[in-house]
Amino acid sequence: MNPTRRQLLASTGLGLAATAALPAHARLPAVPVKPNLFIGTGGTGHTYPGATLPFGMVQLSPDTGVERWETCSGYYKTDTSILGFSHTHLSGTGIGDMLDVLVVPSAGPVQLQPGTIENPDAGYRQRFSAEHAEPGYYRVALETGVQAELTVTERTGWHRYRFPAGKGHVLIDLSHLILDKSDSPPLVDEALLELAADGTLSGTRRVFRWAKGRRIFFAMQLSRKPDRITFIGDDDATQPAGATRVAGKRLKAVLHYDDAGSAPLVIRCGISAVDADGARANLVAEAKHWDFDRVRRDAAKLWSKSLGSVKVEGGTPDQRTILSSALYHAQLAPTLVSDVDGRYPGMDGKTQTVPAGGAAFSTYSLWDTYRALHPLLTLVAPEQTKLLIDDMIRQTAQSRFGPLVWPLQGKETGTMIGWHGVVPLAEAHAKGIPADYAAAWPAIRKRSFDFTAPDKDNSLGRDLYDKLGYVPADKVFESVSRTQEYAYDDWASSHLARVAGAADDAERLHKRSGNWRNVIDGKIGFARPRFENGQWWKDYDPVQLGHMPKPWWRDYTEANGWQATFLNQHDIYGMIAHMGGDAAYEAKLDALFTAPSTLPDNAPPDISGLVGQYAHGNEPDQHAAYLYSYVGAPWKTQAMIRRLCTEMYKNDPDGIIGNDDCGQMSAWFVLSSLGFYPVDPVEAVYVFGSPLFERAELQLGKGRKLVVEAPGNRADTPYVAAVTWNGRPWRKSWISHHDLAAGGTLRFTMSAKPNRAFGRARADRPPSFGRSPA
Fold it and tell me: Which three-class secondary structure state does DSSP give residue 160?
């Protein structure tokens, strides 16, 4: 039996020998490299290959499945049939939703049910070939002879279908959506399809999948008038001939063409999360012509600019493609949710309007993306960051749950733990991004101190956390991780309290951010479940997910005791002291990366990409390899980061070791391959790792440029021998955001042997909790 990729990566014997075996390469010019949009569409990456724009509202992509975890995005690379093309998708998430307004072009008999992946002939599914995807464009050949092409503007999806000679049709399926075994009907209600006198087909539905009760509206126009339209109601009931409207829950419409192959059919579709007028206005504003190729060219230009923000030389061809693909995936979300008139579905359930020049966004996967995605955007997309920060402040003030958690089209899902919307805000303030941060403070304060305020799963146990100093494991699930992540949010919130002039609250939050200590048992050096009576779980096993035998009751969030032990990002020197000092902490880090890669039977699939017990395929300890720099051993950071960059990412559909999580996994690669990473984004510094390329150029906005050089860098030179900044020697194992964002040249001298003196001195180690170890 061949070993799985997970088994290979879990082996601790691969080490740097694997990277040293890679061939040397010639230096190539720094030119943009085309991304591979199929990276992440296999394995558990959960990405999609279809057409979208940077942070765009529309994600027009093929759907191959809706009932498996592998198809959270609607697409899986090894599937052999396509259901059709829908207008909204999630990239890299571990939960599925969206897939709004499915369009199915066909030259075969009209079928109203999709059929199964095992038997596509039983429904409207079609086998396919000749797939091609590039930023802003997708095409495929369907088995009925239809050639399908997709492109987009921000708020409209564009289809071009070339049918074979003879009859053809287009099915619009409003019943199409992601399914899950935990779902209970109705999943769709208040649906409507209607044909206007001018030929515009419009519709809406309310969906109860993940974001319960979210609304979507669309307005669709066709370049060729159909010969007739059939409306289909609930239970596939065909409406009378000549009907122009149908209402219900699970609706469809069929657009019939007697001579479908006589000319290409172009469909342009505007969507809105606000109302029907918004969808039509978006269509009118962004679809002023019928030139599909012009829209495609415009999309390509926008992506060329966005992907041109980072250019690299050196590395292997695959590594350059991975970098470009990761940069692409890092700019898919958050997604635009405000219409051309500025209206959007507010977190208070009301229609809100952004100020002139602003925008509102959805799909904030904040438990994941605060770690690397938002820090990356502060460097390479500062204008986008400003839009996001202003939006997050507004939506925080509107939401009855305060700081954003995982909002999707105006609905707070409360997915994952904590209220990490405070982190990008505190980070942005620390990095000097101007905004009205004080406007968000009342809602943040309420979430922090008002224990009568409404909770979702993400914030359970706040009162006990405040009273006891930790969340007790016998009262609330995922208690250990909650305590640590609530503490990190307290750290971020303390900064925002100071901005708002709330000094006493800031001090209270700063003190409470030390609550992480109360779930780290210093005697054994592990994060450990603790009960309300103060006692620790006595039968502790760091490999297990918790003290309860029930699979759904865990003491950690998508982690076990090993991974949760290193969750602390903001008080690392306090953690080092709590664990017994530098030597003990370094030894514990060594043990993390060399422990047997065993997991309990009830481990979720998110815990993947194991190196020892370190799990790169999930977020809780993705900063762990950089922690060696805090004990003066950055050479160990360098070795492990090079290993992770070369082993955990591939130029292949199964090229991302875990869910891409709205770009977090990709952003980790972008930053780490450049040579630095934000262990604590709120600290606004970057810890050095091991650059993967010989040279990189980052466009930072306003004419500023950051150049990262590592001349002669090869697969067998993972170690940093020396660093210079703007030509001057740089002794520290870190650098501030202020320095990098101003532009300049960061130069690494790479070596096959470690320089154990570099970054060893206490004065040269990174700051943490607002202080340095010296």
Answer: strand
Q: Give SS3 for 568.
A: coil
Which amino acid does the sequence have at 650?
K
User: Averaged over 50-75, what is the pLDDT?
Assistant: 97
Contact 557, 417 (CB under 8 A): yes
pLDDT at 31 over 80: no
- Give the tokens for residue 35: 């991304």
> Which residue from 462, 660, 684 is spatially nearest to 569, judged by alpha carbons?
684
Q: What is the pLDDT of residue 632?
A: 98
For residue 438, count CB atoms less than 10 angstroms from its CB and return exposed for 0-12, middle for 13-18, buried for 19 or more. Answer: middle
Write the pLDDT tens digit of every residue in 199-243. Answer: 999 999 999 999 999 999 999 999 999 999 999 999 999 999 999
Cβ atoms within 10 A of the Cβ of 729, count?
Answer: 8
Q: Strands 407-408, 351-353: parallel, antiparallel or unpaired by DSSP?
A: unpaired
The answer to whether residues 606 and 618 touch, using CB atoms and an 8 Å cutoff, is yes
Measuring CA to CA, which residue among 762, 706, 733 is closest to residue 626? 733
Residues paired with residue 207 on neighbouring β-strands, in sequence order: 188, 214
Which among 137, 135, 117 is positioned nearest to 127, based on CA atoms? 117
Q: Which of 187, 186, 214, 191 is nearest to 203 (CA)?
A: 191
- 60 HSE (CA, 13 A, CB side): 32
Buried b (16+ CB within 10 A) or exposed e, 387-422: bbbbbbbbbbbbbebbbbbbbbbbbbbbbbbbbbbb
Vertex 76 angle, CA 72 and 77, to 5°: 155
Place of tokens 């990356």: 376
The contacts of residue 42 (CB under 8 Å, 6+ apart) are 76, 77, 78, 652, 653, 654, 655
pLDDT band at 194 (very low <50, low <70, confident <90, very high): very high
Find the mean pLDDT for residues 37-46. 98
- Closest of 419, 424, 451 to residue 435, by C-alpha: 424
Question: From CA 217, how far away is CA 232, in angstroms rounded?
Answer: 18
Rounded to the nearest angstrom, the gap between the alpha carbon of residue 230 and the centroid of all alpha carbons in its chain is 39
Mapped onto helix, strand or coil, the DSSP state of residue 201 is strand
For residue 334, is the peptide bond before it cis, meaning its omega torsion is within 30 degrees of 0?
A: yes
